[in-house]
Fold this protein.
Amino acid sequence: MARIHYPPPPNFIVINELGEREGAFAFQALDEGLYLATVSGLLPDTLYFFSLENHGGVAEPALGSFRTLPEREGTLKLAVGADIHPASAPYLAFDAIARLEPHLFLGLGDHVYADLDPSGPVPATAEAYADLYRRTWRDECLHTCWSNVPSILMWDDHEVWNDFDGASDRERVSIAADAYQRYQRSRSPSRDPWVLLDAGPAEIFILDTRSFRSPNISEDGPEKTMLGTEQKAALFDWLSRSSAPLKIIASPTPFHRYADTGLDTWAHGFQTERAEVFRAIDTADPKNIIIVSGDQHWPAVVEIELPSGRSIMEFMCTPTAAFTRPAPARETLLEDVLYISEGERGFGLFEISAASGEASYIFRWISEGGETRFSFERSTLG
């Protein structure tokens, strides 16, 4: 799928490495100057280039490229990051991501900062939020990467306001949500607020941890939710029935206990529902399930113990192109922390392979300059 801003709608062209046109196309108008081009008939794990052709048959130079997702018994390269703030421009990490040529970039929230913009808090108007996106994303590194690496983005709190939840200003949330739908959700293949993506050797369930969230200050218990009834049921159904070699739960809000943003986190504000999710993971067999997350502005790899005594890995990949925050003091960490760092931007890169229904993966935390700071490897056979 591709979203093209170009009135009136031109022909969307996909070209293979030999310069031959490929694919069948269907256009759907989404908004004024915004069209959805659905392309079918492409080969898996293949590099394509795309361009536009006007109604006179004149094609523009190639606008970018993409690599289609692999088949189930293939190898997936998945980049994961979070947090984009204009004070960190140029966004060098996106140059490093583009050089590594992943199949997909997954962004886990805070891709704009309505409350912490350098020009001041953003007024609650559609025009102000539209300008926020344009200013934040006006970066050559970001533009080049997203023109050549398919991306799926999920929102978190700063797309609206710090720690926004079910008690937040409804007018601001509505205006910010409209902007999010146009600039971020327009690139999603899902009609649901959450996203379930078949990515070959892995399936990815991308949680929306904002749209259904109870007020953070509510008393914890069975009624307090971050996911809402429908999304939670969809997550649990997927965990129980999916036969994917590797299942990835992607949550903008981290699950591990070291997250230090108070009641806005799973471990400190939503313990009851967190335990419910962990029981569902335990029942589904955690050996082929991992968690990826964002939010904290310091990277970490944590092995979380489940009720059965088994464990699940969480890879927190943040910040990618934003300010850093201090990580918890080393003396407060236990043996479940495999890696933690601070003071440097970067992203996570997974290489996931499958054969005979079993998966193996290599994770690397990579600095914005492209240096590997930590690596971890595991097979679902283990």
Residues 1-7 have pLDDT under 50 and may be disordered. Helices lie at 92-100, 126-136, 140-148, 170-183, 229-241, 266-269, 271-284. Residues 10 and 54 are 5 Å apart (CA to CA).
